Amino acid sequence: MSDVVVVGAGVAGCVMAERFASRGCSVLMLERRRHVAGNCYDRVDDSGILVGMYGPHIFHTDDARLWEYLSRFTSWRPYHHEVRAFVDGRLVQLPFSLESLYQLFPASLAKNFEAILLDSYGYGAKVPILELRHSALKELRALADIIYDKIFLHYTIKQWGLPPDKLDDEVTARLPILIGHDSRYFQDRFQAVPKRGYSELFTNMLNHKNIKIMLNTDFHDVMKLNDGEIFLFGQRFCGQLIYTGQLDELFGKKFGELPYRSMKMKFETVDAEFFQDVPVVNYPNDYDFLRITEFKRINPGSFRSPRTTLLYEYPQDYTAGKNEPCYPLFTDEARTLYEKYCGELSRFDNIALVGRLAEYRYYDIDDAVMSALKTFERLTS
Ligand code: UDP
Fold first, then answer.
1. Measured from the CA of 152, which atom of ligand 1 is nearest?
2. CATH homologous superfamily of domain 4-36+206-255+328-380?
3. Is 100 in the pocket of ligand 1 (CB under 6 A)?
4. pLDDT, tens digit (0-9, with 9 covering 90-100), for 5-25
5. Which end of the chain has fewer CB within 10 Å, C or N?
6. What is the atom index within ligand 1 of the atom nearest the CA of 164?
7. pLDDT by residue (tens digit) across 325-352?
């Protein structure tokens, strides 16, 4: 019997498995899919281009300790992500910045808005769109309404099936208005992609004699929870369970389904060297797809291909067994249901929840790694 069982081989699960294994614990990892690395899973396609099978993932963090930890498992290629929004037939820089003003408005109007923004917030400030909409200045409220309508409202409805006011404010706050000229999507100190991809990074992480991985294994098939006790292969399990999946599934959905949002991925090969000028173009107002990613512009070693691979992402509701859960749905109702499920955990003293799905948080890769590192410290101190 293993000391630790980790359900889910995504970012958080891999870090937990590696940490416990390095401490001398035997770890059993259960993964429903045929691969590790969760939604960061990538592979080289027929055109020789490294593609993210569940969309683009760009690593970025301000935390040197976290950067050093992941650097044990991969070498990196420095990379600054760039995103544009297709608005009124033009490409506008995201995050929406002083530069974007000039891409969207006639120069004289842009200059006017720029002066008011600089005067109100100062150079380098980051202002959430919902905050800008409540500015005391009517010119800024008018500007915010235009940005909200052209960049945020319809994109958010497309991505989540809900407008921003039905979601936590933190969702749109992830993409603040930037009172500056930085053209990068993220401003963190460390920004990179793994030189040979995320699959290799997480495979290296799990390459430890104390870790046994069972792929194609639904935890329900080998594990049962009953009255505060966990049973593994029919025997009582008294070790530590690390759960990174959907919390409602752990408890047989007894209070109903926790909502998650999914994404349908449509890959397309184009017989041209490049398709677009930047790695990602968002389509807030046009088409059914959310964005187009051109992987050649993100990943190393792909430039030699004479073709280019595109990914069109179509947001959709998550349905168990039909598609993959990508994002928790951040509404008040969903949070209340999540808390109800959390109450069930008090019957157990050996279950820890980690990661985007299990913690029901809008985690980036660095957040998921940090949460895992902190949970490991808490459980072992
Ligand atoms: N967002 C938007 N328009 C855009 C990009 C983002 O309205 O062109 C909003 C949307 O609500 C989204 C949120 O900002 O969910 C966060 O965007 P981010 O790029 O962080 O989403 P990710 O793709 O990383 O999940």
1. 7
2. NAD(P)-binding Rossmann-like Domain (3.40.50.720)
3. no
4. 999 999 999 999 999 999 999
5. C
6. 11
7. 999 999 999 999 999 999 999 999 999 9
